[in-house]
Structure formats: structure tokens, C-alpha cells
Amino acid sequence: HDGSSLGSLGGAGLAGTSVSVDSETQLGLSASYLLTDKVGIELLAATPFTHTVTGHGAPIDGLEIAEVKHLPPTLSVQYFPLAADSVWQPYVGVGINYTIFFDEDLSSDIVGLLGDGDIELDDSIGLAFELGTDYKVNDQWVVNAAVWKIDLDTTATIDLDSGSVVKVDVDIDPWVYMLSVGYQF
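Request: output the structure for the sequence above.
Response:
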């Protein structure tokens, strides 16, 4: 899910405009350490995501605004309700996500409309909620399925060479899905 509040140009609102961010698939990795049979700590990491930001509403409707990259590491506390020797092991988790934005580039579409400049997205800190399950194939190997809902909000600031500044608050709030094979030791 993504969306944006009304932007501003030099302090004046840009009524009827918004932006959206496309979806992306990347290689992910998670590592969990069980503190007890019922409580664990997990770190979710991934290779960098690349997203295209697209404008909506006149005069930016359908224009590619920018391309941005980010890394969204998430640290969670997990709760496992079943006995440790259960073949199926469902769990829930809650944690914190810190998203780091980098390699933000304005597109030629928006440069042609507004002129040259730079774009920067603020890093984001937000809550993350997780639901998952492990299936023990044997004593070492597991198959895992998990889903996270992450609160990811940022402000994009475009500093135009003309001296104008465009700001847009973007609420991305992604759903993250993972199917994986794990090794327990």
C-alpha cells in the first residue's frame, strides 16, 4: 500500500496531486535467536530495493518522478505459543523497522516539467508486525512462511535549481511476504 499527502511547492499546496510507489521483489534473509522456548529475536534483512515513484493529478499525472533505493532492516521480538518439539510452529512478532533511502534520482520526466534539481527521502523508523509459521522437516531443517506489515513513512524533498522546493509526505506501509528454507543449530 502506498499513498501521499498533498505536496507543496514553495509553501503553496499542490491540490489534487499525489504519488505512488511500485512494488519490488528482492532476496531476503532472516535470522532468529531463541532466548527461551517461547521467545525469540529476529533480524529481517534484504538486498536493496529499487522503486519508481509516479505522480498522479495535473500537471504530474502519469509522470515518473524519481527512482529510489532503500534497505529496510527490521528487528523483532517473536512469540512461539506451541511446545518447542512441535512439527508446526506458528509465531507472532512485533518490532521496529529502520528504512535507509539512498541513490535517489529525479527522472527526466520531472526535470523536463520543473527543471533540474535534487531529491532526498528521509530515512524512516516505524513499527513492524509479523505472523509466520515454521514446519520442521527434521531436527535441523525447516520450511518457513511469514508476512510482515511495516509502518514506513517518509518525506520526499525536491530542491530545484530554480530555488523552489517541493515536499511530499509518502506513506508506503508495505506488506512483506517471505517463503524460505531455514537451518536450525
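The longest strand covers residues 88-106.
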